Amino acid sequence: MAKKKNTEAIVQRARPLGRQSAHEFQAFTETITMPIALSQKVARQSIENLNQVLADTFTLRDLYKKHHWQVGGPTFYQLHLLFDKHYEEQNDLVDAIAERIQSLGGVGLAMAPDIAETTIIPRAPRGREEVPVQISRLLHAHEIVLEEARTMARLAAKSGDDGTNDLLVSDIIRGNEKQVWFLSQHLVNVPLLKAD
Predict the structure, then answer these.
(1) Which of 16, 35, 26, 17 is nearest to 110 (CA)?
(2) Given pLDDT bands bounded at 50, 70 and 90, which one contains residue 171?
(3) Running DSSP on this structure, what letter comes out for residue 27?
(4) Distance CA 37, CA 45 (A)
(5) Which domain range does residue 66 map to?
(6) Which 3-state string (H, E, C) describes 85-104?
C-alpha cells in the first residue's frame, strides 16, 4: 500500500500544472528601477519611445513575411528570398528592442492586437499586390521607422541614454537604411533587355 501511495505521489509531481492564473507582477505602464545609472524619468521616456519603434518594427517585419508569401512575377524567386532575409533581420531587431526595453525596467509590447493598436505604419490589404506596390509599401514603412528612430536617437543622446542611442543608430537606423537600399534598387527604371 505504501508503494502505491509513493507511486501516485511521483506521478502527481510529473503532471503539468496547466491552466494557472495570477495577476501581472509588472503592469505594462510600470517601470522598475534598474541599477544602470539612468534616472527613472530617462528610462521611462526611452521605454515609451522604444515601444513605438518596437510596434513599427513588428509591423514592418510582418509586412515582409506577407510579401514573401504573396510576391509574384518575373522576379519572384529573388524577391521571395530577399523578403524572407529582411524579415529575419527585422525579427532580430524586434528581439534587440524588446530586450533593451526590459533592461531599462519596462515591459515591451508583445501581442499582435497591442502592436496593431500602436503602430503608425498603414495597414496593408489582405490580398496580393503587384511587386512595385509591395516594394513601395515596404519603403514607406522603412521611412516611418527611420524618421522616428532618428528623432528618438537624438532624444536618447541628449538625455544621456547611450545604450538606447546606440541601439537606435547602430542597429535600427543602419539596418533599415541598408534594407531600403536593397529594396529601392528593384524600382529603378531600367530595361530588362540588354542594351546595344
Answers:
(1) 26
(2) very high
(3) -
(4) 15
(5) 36-186
(6) HHHHHHHHHHHHHHHHHHHC
Query: Is the CB of residue 170 less than 8 Å from the CB of residue 178?
Result: no
Q: How many domains would you assign to the chain?
A: 1
- Give percent helix, percent strand, percent coil of the chain, each to the nearest 5: 70, 0, 30
- Collapse the DSSP code of 24 into the 3-class scheme (helix H, G, I; strand E, B; otherwise coil) and give the result: coil
Three cell numbers written together for 80: 521571395
In degrees, rounded to 5, the angle at the alpha carbon of residue 91 between the alpha carbons of residues 126 and 57 is 65
Q: Which amino acid is at 146?
A: L
CA angle 158, 56, 152 (to 5 degrees): 5
CATH number of the CATH domain containing 153: 1.20.1260.10
Distance CA 189, CA 84 (A): 24
CA distances to 22, 29, 89 from 13, rounded to whole Å, are 21, 36, 41
Rg for the chain (alpha carbons), in Å?
23
List the one residue out of 192, 196, 194 whose CA is nearest residue 78. 192
- 83 CA to centre of own chain: 15
Angle at 163 between CA 28 and CA 183, to 5 degrees: 90
pLDDT one-digit tens code per residue, 125-147: 999 999 999 999 999 999 999 99
How far is Cα 85 from Cα 94, in angstroms, rounded to an integer? 14
Residue 93 lies in a domain: yes
The pTM for the full model equals 0.89
Assigned domain for 97 exists? yes
